Amino acid sequence: MSAKNEQKATDGMTHEGRFYSAERLHAMHDMMLYIRRFEEKAGQMYGLKKIGGFCHLCNGQEAVCVGMEEAADSKDYMMTSYRDHGHILARGSDPTAIMAELLGRAGGVVGGKGGSMHMFDIEKNFAGGNGIVGEQVPIGIGFGFASQYRDDKRVSITIIGDGGVNQGAVYESFNMAALWKLPVIFVIENNQYAMGTSLSRASAETHLYKRGISFKVPGIQVDGMNVLEVERKMDEALEHARSGNGPMIVEMMTYRYRGHSMSDPATYRTRDEVDELRSGRDPIVRLQKQMIEASLASEAGFKQKDKDIKKEIVGVAKAAEAQPEPDLSVLWDDILTDEIPNAYPYPRQVS
Amino acid sequence: MAKITYREALNQAMCNEMERDDRVFLMGEEVAEYNGAYKVSQGMLDKFGPKRVIDTPITELGFAGLGVGAAMAGLRPIIEFMTWNFAILAADQIVNAAAKMKYMTGGQYNCPMVFRGAGGAAARVSSQHSQAFENWYANIPGLKVVMPSNPADAKGLLAASIRDNDTVIFIENEINYGDIGEVPEGEYIIPLGKADIKRVGSDITLIAHSRMTGYALAAAEELSKQGIDAEVVDPRTIRPLDEATILASVAKTNRAVVIEEGWRFAGIGAEISARIMEKGFDDLDAPVARVTGKDVPMPYAANLENYALPSVAEIVEAARVTCNRA
Prior knowledge:
The complex is a heterodimer of chains A (351) and B (326). With 351 residues, chain A is an alpha/beta fold. Chain A is built from twelve helices and ten strands. Chain A has a single domain (8-323), classed as Rossmann fold (3-Layer(aba) Sandwich). Chain A has helices at residues 3-11, 22-47, 62-71, 85-91, 95-102, 136-150, 168-179, 199-202, 227-242, 271-281, 283-293, 299-322, and strands spanning 12-15, 18-21, 77-80, 126-129, 156-161, 184-190, 193-194, 197-198, 219-223, 248-253. Chain B has helices at residues 6-20, 44-48, 60-72, 91-98, 101-104, 134-138, 151-163, 211-225, 243-253, 268-280, 302-308, 312-322; strands at 2-5, 24-28, 53-55, 76-83, 113-119, 143-146, 167-173, 180-183, 196-199, 204-208, 230-234, 237-239, 256-263, 289-293. Chain B has a seven-stranded mixed sheet, with helices on both faces. With 326 residues, chain B is of the alpha/beta class. In chain B, β13 (256-263), α10 (268-280) and β14 (289-293) form a beta-alpha-beta unit. Chain B has two domains: 2-183, Thiamin diphosphate (ThDP)-binding fold, Pyr/PP domains (Rossmann fold); 196-322, Rossmann fold. At the A-B interface, β4, α6 and α7 of A face α3, α4 and α5 of B.
């Protein structure tokens, strides 16, 4: 082996013909681990009743969040359902603002108006955080329509789950997106369960990447537990949409370790099933192994990183918790842009 | 001023706004090549091309949501529903997305857009195609609800609605599309949230919107023959409501009848009469009366349909009772 090749090996590794620098691999790993620990912290805070309402965690699905964001341009639009913490973290929004939102604090990413289900960050082109199953899909093609209208080459990454994919709005959107060749990627996070209903109990066609066939929307299936696979396939899909070829479906085969929401003990599946996924296909462990094998990292290094991240998240939670609740006056903010002062219901008051 | 139809007035407003702002586009069923199911968008495809005047599949939920996304991304959609009956399919996008987006995102995203189309009772189309929904939308914070009753108002209010930075529910009336009236040429804007006194009178206030404004004016003519001088107030914007104009009129006449085509229960008349009771109680010499559509789905047979709707005679009768002249 030449000196040049040895040098290259320590700089990164090649996976399926694609080179990833060590720096990039570490960043992807660290973000996945960050999301995992963030979600665990959120679960803990929920248990302490510091987070209220509905709270949907994405433990196990981190490779989808991170691999997709790695492939995307920061100008690309992204919107998803209520299982949104991982995606907005991967997009690079401030974790303290996200935690503060979970806690209903003034410095929350939407000022404490949305909570877990409604994370938005316009600076990061992250459009929710949408609470009605499937609702974000027509909205997603609207962003794609705007890109095409302005010809600005932005792609709308519209994320749904294996539950959402049965909503009628999704098919109306597939049809229009294909008809007008809108730059939209429909990402289906197939974590096998729509709340407590397994895929086979809800879907006649369980190969969800085929759901676009009658609309001429091509689809691919991706191992969503492999961040490098997600990155590579998503990159291809984005190129397809960005080049004016219209929409594509990317089905990410993934798994959530936790219940549907914090109130779900997930009795509809066996412990063995969850353990098998956790120990056999965990996306973080998998990347760690690959990086160690490629001599890009060590077990000790990952252990230290885990400690650092946990510590960082304790700090984030503390900082978020230290924030005040929103001022009562903001109750009336942001209902209308053009308020009409002399008409009823009068702005900003109990009429 | 030129005399043009209600539909031409709407067309002028859209064309003027599209010439003025290239972010504005019109999307809906049959709006482009067919020139509009009710010919409201006549000629717009030729004028602005297929990029800005867009025929959709029959997919109300989908294209309403597309409009929401496009508005969030910075465009100014006009989304046409062939009629508001079909917008029920799109209610999730209107109510859960458009109306709440600004609030739910802490002010980051807003939905400056117009949902428009024909509302109210049409003629001889039975239950599913003849109904009034303004009270549904008027109940929701984050929406504005606008209903023109004549061609000039149609033009001025639609232009204002397109320029407005919030989501506007713009309900036209199918029966009124062919009405002719004097309409100012060129740019014409009527600010939202302003009622209009369509007839000045001193004995009783008739409050009516959309097609019922014409009925109220006809009733006022009949009442004047009977010695009752009625004032007719058209709110024009249902939400938010210019109640000051209504209350000032009631303070003058001391009597009021609220007229609406829609159903009585939890209708617009219920809200307006409640406000008159809350804020103008001492001005009243008689209880506020309401004339509304009958509490039945719209039937097809001509005589039944006619009976289900409010009539000029019913308004006259309600006014006479309110004036102790029955």
